[in-house]
Records
---
Amino acid sequence: MDITVYSTPTCPYCKLAKQYLSAKGFAYTEVDVSQDEAEAQKMVEVSGQMGVPVVVIDGEVIVGFDKKRIDVLTGK
């Protein structure tokens, strides 16, 4: 399963999303969009949003911290 979390260091919902994924035992790639303008642009292209977190699970985009959608997409 391929999981990417687009986030910023100061975003509380980003921290919650990453903690939730870790607690469920999922490895993920973290992308700090505050430090990488190209990745920030990629996040906007993928999600249509400027806000974080954006979680991408096997190509499916979740904007914000949505436990139920994470559970559906991960099967847990």
---
Amino acid sequence: MKKIQQGFTLIELMIVVAIVGILAAVALPAYQDYTVRAKVSEGLVMAEAIKAGVAESFAADGLAGVKTYAKQVNDTPPASKYVSKIELDDKTGVITVTYNETNVGTIAAGSTIVLTPYLNAGGGADPIKLGAAAAGDTGTVDWACASETNTNAENRGLADAAKGTLKARFAPAECK
């Protein structure tokens, strides 16, 4: 009579454990980066309202409107569990999102993402930084997002966008 195998051999079990170990070694760091990116994206969501406010203020009253709006934002800066503060530069309209490293995870203290506004006047002209716009200039406001790199912004024609300090691996794709 033939003997039927009753379970797994020790070698088969060791192979399975080794495969699971290798997968875990690769997956855990990727998962940690993913969770940090999810927390970082909260700061960009919070900045959306400020971006709209800058564009509206500029459309209504130029850089003087941006300066007035910046005072309102900076007097009571938004913050959350993951965002320490959001600051708005009153001369350039640049938004700086500073993250709370204690709650976000494996980021450096004071890590930032910077959103730089550009005025796109249309007609084939290159976008200019909002802070360099002349009185009476009009157009749509476009935003460059940058972590420690600003490659995506430069690829979109938004040259010299201010850089933040957050490592690019933790930043959303638009901010790398």
---
Amino acid sequence: MLEIIVLGSGCPNCKKLEQLCYDVAAENNLDATIQKITDINKFADYGIYMTPGLVINGNVASSGKIPTKSTLTHWLTEANHA
């Protein structure tokens, strides 16, 4: 099972990334848990200093930007097979 964490304060980009994760997981039939962390004090625990942040299976995938849908699909499907 994939563990996806979206880190963000609740800004539009953070919400967009969270929704994109749900969309990609559903479209690719990926078994994933998606968690949203909005506590700014927890961001540094993951090494995230710019939001939105994305952590997949404990590894920081991106910070400060929203990946394209195709990039996110690649990351999630690759992590699912790892």
